[in-house]
Design brief:
The protein has 14 helices and no strands. It has about 260 residues and is mostly helical. The radius of gyration is 27 Å and the shape is elongated.
Length: about 260
C-alpha cells in the first residue's frame, strides 16, 4: 500500500509515539494535583452558593468541579442536595445513589439521604437510612432526631418518642432533641413531661426562641400564668424579631 508524502504509516505512528520523550512522574503528579485543585475551588464555590440559597449557581459550580475532575466523588453528594433543593427528585436520587456507591458508610451522606426519602414520604427507607447514619456518625443525635421527626410526620408517635429519647441519651445537651421530645409530650397533653424537657434548657443561655415559646404554651395550658409570663418576657427580650415573638403578639398561645 502506498502512503502519500507527509503522512506516516501506522507503523510510523507507533515509532513516532515511542520516540517521544516520556514525561517524568513529577510532571504527571503535578498535572493531577492541578486538576484536583481546580475541582476543589469550584466545589467550595458551589458550597458557598448552596448555603446562600443560590441553587442554580451552585449547580453550575458543582458541575464545573465534576467536569474538571470526573473522579471528584464529593460532587455527587453536593449535587444531590442541590437537585433536592430545586425539586429535581429523579436527579437527586441518581446522585445520592452514585455517592453511596463510593461512600456507603458516610454518616452525613446517609443522614441527608434519609431526609430526601422522608420528604418524599418513603418512611421505611428513610428510617433505614437514618439508622445506617447512626452507625457511621460521630454525632448520632442528628440522624436520630431526623428519624423521630420523620416518624412524627406519618403519625408514628411511639417510634418518634423512642428516637428522640435515644437522641437525648446520646447527647443530653442537644437543644433540638429536647424541643422535639417536649413537643411530642405536649401533643399528647403530657404537660409535666413536656415541661421537664425544657426547664433546664430555658434557664440557661442555650435557650432558643423555639424552646421558650414551646414552654410558654405548655405553662399556658397548665394554667401557670406567672411562669408563662416569665417565659414570654424572656422570649420578647432575647428574640424580639423571631417568628415565635410574632406569634405571641398575635395571641397564638392556644394554637
Amino acid at each position: 500500500m502506498m502512503w502519500r508524502a507527509g503522512l506516516l504509516s501506522p507503523l510510523g505512528l507507533v515509532i513516532a509515539a515511542c520516540a517521544q520523550p516520556l514525561q517524568p512522574p513529577e510532571a504527571a503528579a503535578n498535572r493531577v494535583e492541578l486538576v484536583q485543585q481546580r475541582a476543589q475551588v469550584h466545589f467550595e464555590l458551589a458550597i458557598t452558593y448552596f448555603r446562600a440559597g443560590q441553587l442554580q449557581t451552585a449547580l453550575a459550580s458543582v458541575q464545573k468541579a465534576m467536569a474538571a475532575d470526573p473522579a471528584f466523588d464529593e460532587g455527587y453528594h453536593l449535587r444531590a442536595l442541590v437537585h433536592m433543593g430545586l425539586g429535581n427528585s429523579a436527579d437527586a436520587e441518581s446522585d445520592f445513589q452514585r455517592a453511596l456507591q463510593s461512600r456507603p458508610k458516610d454518616g452525613a451522606l446517609l443522614n441527608n439521604y434519609g431526609w430526601f426519602l422522608c420528604e418524599r414520604n418513603r418512611y421505611q427507607e428513610s428510617v433505614a437510612a437514618f439508622e445506617l447514619s447512626v452507625i457511621s456518625s460521630r454525632d448520632i443525635a442528628r440522624p436520630l432526631i431526623g428519624a423521630g421527626i420523620c416518624s412524627m410526620r406519618v403519625n408514628r408517635v411511639d417510634e418518634a418518642q423512642a428516637f428522640f429519647v435515644r437522641a437525648r441519651q446520646a447527647d443530653p445537651g442537644n437543644v433540638l432533641a429536647a424541643v422535639e421530645l417536649a413537643r411530642l409530650h405536649f401533643r399528647r397533653n403530657e404537660f409535666d413531661a413536656a415541661r421537664a424537657q425544657l426547664g433546664e434548657l430555658n434557664r440557661s443561655p442555650r435557650a432558643t426562641a423555639e424552646s421558650l415559646w414551646l414552654e410558654a404554651r405548655i405553662t399556658h395550658h397548665m394554667g401557670l400564668a406567672k411562669e408563662r409570663n416569665a417565659l414570654t418576657d424572656a422570649l420578647l427580650q432575647k428574640y424580639p424579631r423571631s417568628p415565635e415573638a410574632a406569634a405571641f403578639e398575635r395571641g397564638s398561645l392556644d394554637g
